[in-house]
Amino acid sequence: MSGYRTTLTHFLIEEQRRRQGEGVLTLLLADVMTACKRISDLVDHGELAGALGTMGTENVQGEVQKKLDVQSNELFKFCNTIGGHLAGMASEEEDDVVTVPAEYRGRYLLLFDPLDGSSNIDVNVSVGSIFSILRCPDGIEQPTAEDFLQPGVEQVCAGYTVYGPSTMLVLTTGNGVHGFTMDRNVGEFFYTHENMTIPADTQEFAINMSNMRHWEAPVRRYIEECLAGKTGPREKDFNMRWVASMVADVHRIMTRGGVFMYPMCDKTREKGGKLRLMYEANPMSFIIEQAGGVSSTGRERIMEVQPKELHQRVPVILGSKNEIDRIVSYHSEGTEK
Ligand code: P6P
To answer: All domains of the chain, ordered by start, with CATH?
Structure first.
């Protein structure tokens, strides 16, 4: 089936040659890829691997930890510690930064949400992993959380793996967005989606509608106009999707366009939003922007937000450029029309 397609490893070597850069990023991504392959196998086996159900514990976010949350987190840490490329790691599932023993320390920082959308795992709906790579500041041997607090524009690489009907890894190193599909028989990711781009227009939005009464006016205005369809100011009908797995919703947008919103609202304002900046919003924003889309809090470009803490949350409005530009303009107007 894979024929003579390029593998992810060969693609990364070509990228390294094009960038005339050091090969470390290639080797680091090979370790990330191994973690994603092993998580894919756990997800694929579900209860056969004892991967369903909860641990009866909570993570730093105060969220109930699924068994697969913990197993995926341990796999990411295990696969990425001894490679010699990382100075430290940060995870949604870890209170503080994960240190790397001095003998294995390298020059990059890896941040990850090891299993995004894990509330879906018990009902057999797509989940994913999200990762972001930053440079460790010069002169820092053992990075603290402060050293991770770099805006999204500093990322050298970002990607996600969606564990769906097929397992796909989608990544950018700043030279477009490229997709790879895993061949389970071979245990390798093959290059299947070259230069993924997002259409500037769309008729599809993703938002958790049950939060409508908590939304701010600009979001309510946008959604109500979409719902009004042909009879309303947009003069066209819209469709809605909500998987409740950011990776799955973003992958749909990467495939056919769309709008994804987890905006600021009265329900999440106290925490600053729902989604985490460092290992959800920033990596997804890098990918979306590299594919020609836009990613905003509604009031500023997400990748320019200066992080203040490791598990900081932000409002997220991302996707097809012309629609996000419209939503941002509604925020700048501030009021409903
Ligand atoms: P809600 C999953 O828990 C997640 O972090 C994202 O993947 C997803 O988009 C969102 O939360 C779903 O939130 O409130 O709809 O359950």
So the answer is: 2-193 (3.30.540.10), 204-332 (3.40.190.80)
